[in-house]
Amino acid sequence: MLWVPQMKGGIMIWAILALLGVPLWLCAIAILVLVLRNRGLRKRAADIPMWLRVDAKSRWHRGHGLWVHDVLAFRGSPAAWNEALVWATSVTIRELTPEETHKFRRLDGPVVGTLAVADGPAAEVVTARQHLPLLVGPYQRPTTNVGSTS
């Protein structure tokens, strides 16, 4: 008779673990899928790691961008859940001010791109100098070969 209460208690523990364990496994799988999908987005060919500020009074948002024709598609880090589509008409590049240099000191040679937006205030993008050709995107001026004979 002593083993019957232990068996019922054992079943109860397994039932509690099953009820709590399944949602934890589902949460773990969902987080894993989110991380792997975000990694896949960061590994795109024309991906630009950047900081974006949509107007001069807002804060900087860290994330990744991609040019699609003349629209810069931006996606923040997965926990931020912020995305933006910026329809740019031109891009101008400038060096950082001393205040901005301190904020972006961890970037390797940071540069600022100011995007003239078709339907609103100018947006600013900061990225490392190595990503400058991708940042300029469709507004890159073609290089001329001096001395070519064609």
Provide a descriptive summary of the structure in words:
The chain has helices at residues 3-42, 98-103, 132-136; strands spanning 48-53, 61-68, 71-76, 83-94, 110-117, 123-128. With 150 residues, it is of the alpha+beta class. Strand 3 (71-76) and strand 4 form a beta hairpin. The longest helix is centred in the N-terminal third of the chain and has 40 residues, at 3-42. The chain has 2 domains: 1-43; 46-139, Pleckstrin-homology domain (PH domain)/Phosphotyrosine-binding domain (PTB) (PH-domain like), CATH 2.30.29.30.
Describe the structure concisely.
A six-stranded antiparallel barrel has the order 1-2-3-4-5-6. The protein is built from three helices and six strands, in the order H-E-E-E-E-H-E-E-H.
- Estimate the helix proportion, in percent: 25-40%
Sheet with most strands? 6 strands, antiparallel, barrel
CATH superfamily of the largest domain: Pleckstrin-homology domain (PH domain)/Phosphotyrosine-binding domain (PTB)
Number of helical elements: 3
Q: Might you state the CATH topology name of the largest domain? A: PH-domain like
What structural class is derived from the secondary structure elements?
Answer: alpha+beta
Q: What average pLDDT do the residues reach?
A: 80
Give the topology string: H per helix, E per strand.
HEEEEHEEH
- CATH architectural label of the largest domain: Roll
What sort of overall outline do the alpha carbons produce when their principal axes are compared?
elongated
Q: Stretches where pLDDT falls below 50 for ≥5 residues?
A: 1-5, 142-150
Indicate the multimeric state: single chain
Gyration radius (Cα, Å) is: 25 Å
Count of strand segments: 6
Cross-sheet strand order for the largest sheet: 1-2-3-4-5-6
Strand content: 25-35%
